[in-house]
Amino acid sequence: MPQTSVKHSQQPPAPKLRPDHLAALADLARSEAGIRLTPEKIHFLQTRLARRVTASGSADFSQYIALLKRDKSERVRFTEALTVHTTSFFRENHQYRWLHEEGLPELSKRRSEITFWSAACSTGQEGYTALVVAENYRTAAPNAFRFRLIGTDISTVVIAAAKAAIYPPTDLETVSAKLRQKYFLRARDGSERHRIVPELRKMAEWRQANLVTGTGLAGITADVAFLRNVLIYFDAEIQATVIDRVVHHLRPGGYLLTGHSETGVRHRALTPVQPSIYQKTVQP
Ligand SMILES: C[S@@+](CC[C@H](N)C(=O)[O-])C[C@H]1O[C@@H](n2cnc3c(N)ncnc32)[C@H](O)[C@@H]1O
Prior knowledge:
The chain is α/β, with parallel strands linked by helices and 284 residues long. The chain has helices at 22-33, 42-55, 61-70, 72-82, 93-110, 125-138, 156-164, 177-183, 198-201, 236-248; strands at 113-118, 146-153, 166-167, 184-186, 194-196, 204-208, 222-227, 250-258, 270-274, 277-280.
């Protein structure tokens, strides 16, 4: 039988991350985004960063680290590669139930405009859920009030997605049929994707901001701040700095909502209301 020779295109091997690279990468991740990199993350880092090493024109991780130290724009891409953006509509639903049953009735008695802040907003589902719940509450509420949303995240990629507000059908599985019908429209591209209705989209402002350094947060004063599933990426010292910063941007009497696994929240101005819900003490 004649032998056919199959030529495989030769892919260069992926750059290899060595344990001795970790300290420099961990320092950069901490100073850029507060992200804590521990030795167990080596496989995660290898997967997430090997492509960046090659794309940046670096021959190996040592060259890439040198590039990161001198090039701000590569540090932005580095942070982008390290951040995890998992989110969903109605995630930690007990908090939205609290918002509907207790938070909004109480806030709308004393505030004519309520500001929600989704502080690590990812692709927008957290903030839009707050708008859906507030609009649904407002239509039958005893007190008239307006509301708006500010969404912030360190990643510009997710901020662009949040602004677009277009979601695949799998993302809508946690939204009831009634709310889907009221607050989502079929996307115009003929696909199965859905978009948040314009009335809610126009109540939202999205900006890039860094909770660790405080850049991008100027002017935010929130009545309800969602700080969920982001503290877990920080060490205890950075967690304390970020909590203090978010509390500073919260109106007295306002509420802070954290992820259910982020249990170590302690701050002199915060009083626990329910698990993972805190109220900022009203200053005299
Ligand atoms: C797992 S998602 C959480 C999304 C949403 N809060 C939720 O609970 O569904 C974490 C988000 O935190 C963002 N993030 C990480 N470090 C940050 C920082 N220093 N400042 C602002 N956002 C950050 C990431 O880009 C990512 O979108």
